[in-house]
Amino acid sequence: MTDCIFCKIINQEIPSYKVYEDDKVYAFLDITQVTKGHTLLVPKEHVTDIFEYEPTLAGEVFARVPKVARALEKAFPEMQGLNIINNNKELAYQSVFHSHIHLIPRYGESDDFSIHFGNNQAAYSSESMQEIAEKIMKQVEQ
Q1: pLDDT of 1
Q2: Distance (Å, whole) CA 128 – CA 91
Q3: What positions carry the motif Histidine triad motif (predicted)?
């Protein structure tokens, strides 16, 4: 894709702070640096989001996540945790439409980063939970 910023980074047309590269992925520092070491792992093959992955590509890309995560942990022993985030589509906060995985080191509760999971358990009966599970299961089996 010619106008994709991540494709241009992969092809060395735009500079980046590379932390890892092999034949399938390219990992580099996110320029926002939400926390020190915030890294993006991108497939070299242009796919817009998780919905475009073929099983082989998904396996190859996601298999590299622990390698980069361990590198972050070794590079920053003061790191206390790590968020791994993959946003898909605009509503889910995807802003660059070349699939990418954020690895965000966590150093303490005062990090400039947060995630909120609402608890809507009371809104779903056991029956409605079963219906939801079955609806998804039917699609997984196809």
Answers
A1: 62
A2: 25
A3: 98-102
Task: List the chain domain ranges.
Answer: 5-141
Do the Cβ atoms of 37 and 88 come closer than 8 Å?
A: no
Is 38 known to be catalytic?
no
Rounded to an integer, the average pLDDT of 117-123 is: 95
Q: Which two tokens stand for residue 129?
A: 């939970």
pTM of the predicted model as reported, rounded to 2 decimal places: 0.93
> Is the dihedral angle over the CA atoms 32, 82, 42, 98 positive or is it negative?
negative
The full DSSP string for 11-66 is TTSS---EEEE-SSEEEEE-TT-SSTT-EEEEESS--SSGGG--HHHHHHHHHTHH
Of 46, 98, 100, 116, which one is the catalytic site residue? 100
Domain 5-141 fold is HIT family, subunit A (3.30.428)
Cα 39 to Cα 5: distance, rounded to the nearest angstrom = 16
Q: Tens digits of per-residue pLDDT, 8-47?
A: 999 999 999 999 999 999 999 999 999 999 999 999 999 9
